[in-house]
Amino acid sequence: MGIEVRTRGRSGARVTAQAQAAREAALLQQPAGEGQTAPPAIGHSSGHVAGKSNGRKPAIPEFDAEESLAELRTLAGSAGANVVGEILQRRDRPDPATLIGAGKLEEIAGAAASVNADLLLFDHDLTASQQRNIEKIVKRRVIDRTQLILDIFARHARTREGQLQVELAQLQYMLPRLAGRGVEMSQLGGGIGTRGPGETQLETDRRKIYRRVRHVEQQLENVRRIRAQQRQRRESAPVATVALVGYTNAGKSTLFNALTRAAVLASPRMFATLDPTIRAVVLPSKRKILMSDTVGFIRHLPHTLVSAFRATLEEVQRASLIVHVSDASSRLSAEQDAQVEIVLKELEAEKKPRLRVMNKVDLLDEEVAQSLMNDALREDSNTVYVSAAEGIGLDRLLARIDAMIEEDRVSRVHLRVPQKEGKALAMLEAKARIYSREYKDGAVELEVEAPESVVRRVREWVVG
Question: Among 61, 71, 81, 323, whose CB has the most other CB atoms within 10 angstroms?
């Protein structure tokens, strides 16, 4: 069930604070002069109509009602649902009691009965009273967008840490919705929207839930402490961390696998990656970095999830470089990028050094893709076009990452190493780029480009 609310004020269309922040965040990330021919902004199904470009700032395309409903359909598929019908309603204002009005709900109840639907999904956040009122009329279970996303997270969490984070988010979501639902929520759950705490026959008494929340938070704090210790050991060596972030299903895990030769699950389903994975990558300069794959972001990502997954997302906060992966084939990539900016701002990571990676260029027209890739060849460009699935542009991406990493900077030196120093010569062969090599009087003269950590180990043989 989707809803588009057309709300207009005296000065024309109005937008929510979140939509406005999304567009402003995206505009701040665009270099001057880019995007001047962007299409005008349009309405989206969370209930507002976008404003116009002011002539200097390009408009950011937004999800319209149909596209938002299509995203809900994809989310439902990721949760294991079989979608048997869709309804989109346009209203001047939301109904405070039922969101869409009792008359429309009677129509929906009839449609649901005709196809034997046992669950209604709303592409909108519902208050506890709205959810109860809707269920009384349609005589079926009702869940909103946030509850659906929480269910997908519960389905995909594999590690103990991921399961704890999902449970905490579900408990925080459940607390304000206890009134009037004690009997229902104390039963064992089954199906979409009931995974996680419901499967443990969780008591709905507030005191017991608060006690469980404190217990889960304590366990997550232990996870955070262990992760901090691991990070401290990593940071004691000059190894930079690069975090992949982006909208869900932008291809982060596919790119991660292509760069690290890892076997992280890469799936077209949304939120296939929940548990963080860190792997080493060797750059063209032969420096080693650590790359982390993170959970994908989405529009209206529940705040409880951002809070619960803070232990995981600390990898983004601590990263030396954030690689923002976007879907180049999506018309809404700018809007998706803007939503990523909102989450990065909430994590206080919006000022981190950033490299934009436009993925899935293999899905673009060949001439368009080649033109974009040629434009991005400028040395000062912070945008790289790649296809992780086809292996296109990966060398260029690694070279750009190499140029942007500040840790263990690379320098070019001339060395004269005695031939008997086999260990030092082997280390240079493995960890430095050798441009010339000449044997003279029992020594090897080398012109190399090497990280500072390597140069320090051969400092005594530096010439000039």
Answer: 323
